[in-house]
Amino acid sequence: MIRRSSLLLVAVITTTIACAQDKPLDMKMDFEDYDPPSTLVVSEHHITKAKFPFVDIHNHQFGMPTMNLANLVGEMDKLNMAVLTNLSGRGRGSTEHLENSLKNVKDNYPKRFLVFTNVDFSGIDDADWTKRTVKQLEDDVKKGASGLKIYKSLGMFNTDSKGNRIHIDDPRIDPVWAKCGELGIPVLIHSADPPQFWQPIDNQNERWLELKTHPGRRHDNDPVSWETIIAEQHNIFKKHPKTNFINAHMGWYASDLKKLGQLMDMYPNMYTEIGAIIAELGRQPRAAKAFITKYQDRVLFGKDSWVPAEYETYFRVLESEDEYFPYHKRYHAFWRMYGLGLSDDLLKKVYYKNAIRLIPSIDKTLFPD
Questions:
Q1: By CB neighbour count within 10 A (0-12 exposed, 13-18 middle, 19+ buried), where does 62 fall?
Q2: Radius of gyration for the chain, computed over Cα atoms and rounded to the nearest angstrom
Q3: Contacts of 219 (CB under 8 A, 6+ apart)
Q4: In this structure, are residues 147 and 116 in contact, taking their beta carbons and an 8 Å threshold?
Q5: Cβ proximity of 264 and 298 under 8 Å
Q6: pLDDT digits (tens, 9 = 90+) for 133-172
Q7: Are strands 325-326 and 336-337 parallel, antiparallel or unpaired?
């Protein structure tokens, strides 16, 4: 005989199980944790070596004065990188740093590296700053510097003796830009950061994840706007048509190629490079390919940070026609990308021909034609 208490217990258990089955699962998850592998079955091409030798026009090697360049060249060879451009020639402003970098290159691998010089704006209020800086630039080029790199600190962080922000188009700098034109060297200029870094950090900001994980990149409380900084940059392009400027990171217009195209048309002395914005091109392959095709003589290869494993993403976007593959840093680009499948002619221009035209001192024997 089944006791009444036993029947009651069975009923309770049955009811509990039924309720548990009806209760919805806890589906809450932080956005940072949601990163499922794709179930899409498509062709994959992991390209670890560029199809053609290339010039990386945007790189930094702060230890160049004393480093063993043989180790660096070994890594370059694995990538098929023919020439690496060290934009940090002066390090923290030292002439000695530049001279030792140039000497290390000349003594060991004179064909494999370009070194750009830099400008110190801290003494811009000095009466002789302009004359002194122009003379420094001339001397640096005589010593072997191939160009001038301008950091984003100009227009954002550099201040004069009174604490006022130094504008990119400050007239005291005009002779420097003009001298670069006279000397026939390009100016690679990085101005501002992605515009989203100035926007409210909320659910409407596409770079929210990056700004959450890297709060030091936020500019939403900065006193100067993104638009102001960029306008100052464009002003020097306009004022100095005889000087060639390489607008770093596609001028932060890689997500608006129509606008970037208008700027390319407006400033024929403006070139650009793809450092740190390859994820933008990879998510709009048709538009990006059309843009590079139209402006094929003014787009250069650049990477920025020296992380050899990350070059694969660049090669894959430029060379393959792969679909729906991830960027190498999810916080930087949580979307998937697609290959542009550039032709050999376009690849050669982006990889090395445009750089050779801008900097004739590059050894042409390193390249196929």
A1: middle
A2: 26
A3: 193, 197, 198, 226
A4: yes
A5: yes
A6: 999 999 999 999 999 999 999 999 999 999 999 999 999 9
A7: antiparallel
Q: Yes or no: say if 111 and 156 are a contact pair by the CB < 8 Å rule.
A: no
pTM over 0.85: yes
Evaluate whether 64 touches 93 at the Cβ level (below 8 Å).
no
CA distance 265 to 262: 5
Is 53-366 a CATH 3.20.20.140 domain?
yes
Tens of pLDDT, residues 219-264: 999 999 999 999 999 999 999 999 999 999 999 999 999 999 999 9
β-bridge partners, 272: 247, 299
Beta bridge partners of 271: 246
* All residues at 6 or more sequence positions from 161 whose CB lies less than 8 Å from its CB, including other chains: 125
Q: Which amino acid is at 225?
A: S
Q: State the burial class of residue 170 (Cβ atoms within 10 Å of its Cβ: 0-12, 13-18, 19+).
A: middle
178 within 8 A of 240, measured Cβ to Cβ: yes
Q: Are strands 245-247 and 325-326 parallel, antiparallel or unpaired?
A: unpaired
Alpha carbon distance 134, 180 (integer Å) = 9
